Amino acid sequence: MRNSVLRFISACLYYSGLVNLIRWWMLHSGQRLIILNYHRATGEELRRHMLYLRRHFRLLPLETALEELYTPCKEGLQWLDRRAPLVLTFDDGYYDNYTQAFALACELQVPITIFLIPGYMDCGSCFWWLDRLILHARVDKAVLEGRIYHLDQQEECKALAQAIDARVSRATSLAQCEGFLASVRQVLAIPACVVLEEKPAPLLTWAQAREMEQSGWVSFGAHTLHHPVLGSLADPAEVQREVEGCRTILERQLGHPVRTFAYPYGGSKDIGKHGLRAVQQAGYDWAATTIPGFNTRRSNPYLLRRVFADVNQHWLILAAKTSGVWGFFACLVGKAK
To answer: What is the pLDDT of residues 206-229, one digit of tens each?
Structure first.
């Protein structure tokens, strides 16, 4: 229902000409960089997203776009192409980024950037993502923190996922997080072999990552070793290990410097003061958040904003988001309050 309403509103905005008008106004009011934030790539809309974006924006690899934004003397071809620059990023490095996003990137010649979690790649570790945990449950109901969840009901599964996510986001150490998730697997009666032997693997392998990079259409950034909420970790040294260790492994596996980072979850509280400091000390040049908005030359390079993108949403919704019209009306509503 909500998606249908958003699509109807977006269609009104698009076919009224307002999307094109706002996009034109944004383009002529100063240089801006739009960074989209995808996760999964499976869905019928991703092709339509890319086709729309390729037509209306100047699509660039993340590093190229950021160099251009922060180094005015390196404007290059932007004088020949007056469209606003835009970058497509994917967090976590799911396998469908290889089967779907990579294939489309090559076919349509659209550059993409993927932020990887090396602690879960090619090592037999269990990537704990909630949809997989509940999918592999061997029980009809589960008891967590005193509440019973009936797993034959979709709403109950959703509620359980939210409860697990809330606990994980409050973990003050990686050991505490892993211990809690181990107890969840016990509650759901999931044998270790089911997750460890899952085929295909839920995340990219290093071989797939290298193949994607060699195509010239895919670049990679860092997303911590194990995807913790950096702002919740109590020990600054552990924060530093997650941030710096990720870069070390990526550079060893890919054979070149890794300059970009994306904060897990990515909100202000999720980053925390230790997360921001760790990224700067680890030597990254830029870091992306999930804080909504566009970027200008005045933007903090370690707190870059991104626009959330969902492959299950109609391209008209994406058109409204990337034009700036969503932010424009949100600002008006905020002032009215």
So the answer is: 999 999 999 999 999 999 999 999
* Cis preceding-peptide flag for 200 (omega within 30 of 0): yes
* Euclidean distance between CA atoms 334 and 29, whole angstroms: 22
CA neighbor of 36 nearest in space, from 260, 293, 284: 293
Tell me the DSSP string of 144-165.
ETTEEEETTSHHHHHHHHHHHH
- The encoded tokens of residue 31 equal 């240089």
Measured over the CA atoms of residue 320, residue 326, residue 328 and residue 329, the dihedral's sign is positive
CATH superfamily of 2-122+209-336: Glycoside hydrolase/deacetylase (3.20.20.370)
What CA–CA distance (Å, rounded) separates 234 from 90? 28
How many residues in total does the chain contain?
Answer: 337
pLDDT per position as a tens digit, 104-160: 999 999 999 999 999 988 765 556 666 677 888 899 999 998 999 999 999 999 999
Which residue has tokens 């249908």? Answer: 4
What is the rounded distance in angstroms from the CA atom of residue 14 to the CA atom of residue 9?
9
Quote the CA–CA distance of 143 and 17 in Å, as a whole number: 52
Determine contact, residues 118/205, Cβ cutoff 8 Å: no
